Amino acid sequence: MGAGGPPHAHLTRVREAYPLSLHGVGLSIGGAGPLDTAHLDRLRALVDRYQPASVSEHLAWSTHQGSYFNDLLALPLNRETLASVIRHVDRTQTHLGRRILIENPSTYVTFEASDIPETAFLAELSARTGCGLLLDVNNVHVSCINRGDDPVRYIDAFPLAAVEEIHLAGHATDTDETGCPLLIDTHDRPASEAVLALYAHALDLLGPRPTLIEWDGDVPAWDVLEAEVRRAEAILNPAEIRHVA
Amino acid sequence: MWRDAQQEFASALLDPTRPVPAGVASSEHRFAVYRNNVTVGLRDALADTFPVVREIVGEEFFDGMAQVFVRRSPPRTPVLIDYGCGFPDFIETFDPAAGLPYLADVARLEWAWTRAYHAADAPPVGIGTLAAFPPEQAADARLVLPPSLRTLVSAWPVVSIWQAHQSEGTGTAIAERGEAALIFRPGLDVEVRGVDESTCAFLTALSDGLTLGEIAGQFQDGYDFDLARHIGAVFELGAVVDIQISEGGHR
User: Which residues of chain B does A139 touch, with a Cβ-Cβ cutoff of 8 Å?
Assistant: First the structure.
């Protein structure tokens, strides 16, 4: 979102060869306050300039009263927050003049005020705003294990018809003070076998979808990244063949 | 109400002495993941913008200093390339760094570098563009500098210090005298150069929008000032992106 320089020069060259997926972390769609109009304008300019194949954001918040926390923070899921997230997605889609995708977040805490399951929340959000969904399989695994839920049942309950893009990533494994598992979405290592198994399960249900590997911490050498792409393709390619057949 | 709960959540993120917010049905340890993500993420953003400051003070000192700044002055924009404007001034008042009086100016240079890196593209024009004007118009000409250009006058050898941290193992001695820096981006690469005091004054006059005639008048009574040499030098550097004539409008 700078004015010029190497980032735009490189992105322009990439855009000449590939479709782009613009993935935002700064809109704070899950916040209680109004969206940041200046940021919407910047995003609009970027979308106009690069004409990406998809534009996505998260079911999360990152800004409060003007302070930006640079993290995707959890919100309670209930009628009140559903209404405000619907308003924010509507406003974003109107401002950008296009549909966006909303991604399921990785979460570390739950709220007493939550009374709608995340899958039902996202289903109603998509139905009411027309937005698509981005299924982050690593986030499903991380959040479900952290909450004590079953990731496979989460995928089975997910509104899969709205899914237009999938994300895979690696996570760190820790425990909380009671010895319960605490997974942290770190994007700094290969996806776990459990996440790839969940990915295969999701593709069985929804067919092949464009898949992005998020590895933006401790970025490794090219051959390591390429090997990670091969692991995903070993699951994605058979799904494509099955889908065509 | 989510608005009130969010306020409490936000306050607890940057203040580790606050308890886990009411309504969060999870342990201290789990909430701490968010606290850690926020502090480390913003600290890393500062580390990206101020790599030489970090190298000078070391990782541990930098992390501690950045954490104090992050908690006191979180970004007011989600655009992290714009975060850190206040960091140099903060360093100047940060007591544990008082033994390194040049550190704030090194940070100012790095901030200017980041501004230049992300500034709007503006290809330089050659001196032939100026020569194309009739001589009687030249006095009314304004040389337009690129949006990436900044100057920094320091009481410390800030350019030499910065340059010493750009490559491995250069053991050049750094003279104990002030330096002025010119930071700009003629193409894709940011350039940092030491410039003399009169060049710095000339660039400041240009960025203030003075015409060449006005600059000639202003500097005439001062120190030994060679206008033709300075004009040649800024074109040579690639630091002129347009020429405007004050009466006749824009060319």
Answer: none
